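Entry for the shared binder. Reason: the reviewer on the internal report wants the predicted structure included alongside the sequence.
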Amino acid sequence: MTIMRVISRLILRKSSQPSHPRWLSTSTEAATVAETEAPPQPSKQMLRKLLFNEVVENNSGSNIRGILDKWVNEGKQVKKVYIGNLLHYFRNRKNFHAALQLYEWIDSSNLEMSDADRAIRIDLLCKTEGLASAEKYFNSLQVSEKTNKTYGALLNCYCREKVLDKALDLFDKMKELNFISTLNYNYVLSLFHSTEQPEKVVSLLQEMEEKNIAPDRRTYNLLISSYAALNHLDATEIVEKMKSSNIKPDFSMYEKLATVYIDSGLHDKANAVLELIEQMEIQNDEGALEGRHTRLKLYSMMNDLSGINRVWEGIKSASPTPSTSSYLAMLLALSKLGDKENLEKIFKEWEESRLTHDFDFWLPNVLLDFHLRHNMIEEANFLYKSLEHRASEANLKALNLFANLCIKNSQIDLALNYLEMGLEKAKPREKQFPTDETMKLFVDYFEASNDRDRGEKFIQSMTRRHRLSSDSLPFCSKAPEAET
């Protein structure tokens, strides 16, 4: 009896213990283990993105070095590919100072500098600190680091700065070292072109042929310009030369050839090039639209309305609803022709099309500019009223036109308001806003009205942006120094 009581108690004790399903126990154990494990480390891709964002958002002054040093001190690795992404970003946006800081940090770290890196650094030094700094860096390189790329970078600096003697001396040295390439020849060809020595462009191209250095499209573009300057342009000869070099002419090259003929008054020869463009459109369906836009521009340069209409019909037959870019190309062609009736007709067609939901200021800009150039103030005011509510979206061209119109309407405060809006959008050394014509309208208005207060503020603003001098208005004797 006693034995039976003991057994019963043991059974009851065992049955009274909480019973968990096996899956619940396993899950609970896993959660406990997970809590004790370290948090997952960010992936390489995530690290690259984090560093990129941090540098881009805080790249003022010498902050880049500080950000990268902090990153390393925190035990995070900075790989060359991370820096490469940043270099690409800053150079594309012409932020050369930031790009140079990255190279300075690479130089001070244990990351390897390639020939391409050193060549880019020479270019950046020239752009940010001047030619002397680029030369100093090149001279500091080891003999093994003075390669085709670094020599080429310095040559490009000399050619871009038009330092003829140094460029030619260096080029001769590079020939001795057999550091010759199409790119390096193109640098010198560009130098001869920019210093108006077309005969030397032709001569240097002959040297390239003798040395079996293959020209490229850039080479032929320079040759076309040089032949034009020498009044010795034969489109057939150029095209045949290109084909012999296995270079297929593109639309831009044909446009350049035709433009040279048009400028020389040789419309028959220009039309022959236009026919080549049309043939190329047929052979290249994907690029046909670019060819048609090119022909619209060229026909407008020849005042050929029938040619323009023929191209437009081709565009519409290919697509019943032309693209915004096609409407823009057509409006520009008609504006150049001075065809007010068709210009307004095509603009209205665009307005009524489904494309206006994606509004593009470049199209009304064409019509507004046309009205202002032809002193059609009433028409300009009518168009402006339809655009006024979009002023905050306006690009610099539109804001310049708005200011222009307001001056002509004697609405000087409104004109200054549009000027200020544009200056806030423009880069510090923007040379296209406002245009010289609009600045002259402002100056003429202030002189005629003897408006000293507004005139002085305008001159001060333009002086800071290196657009006017302080004596541009007789009554503005003092103005702040230009911003550096």
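Summary line for the report: The chain has 26 helices and no strands.
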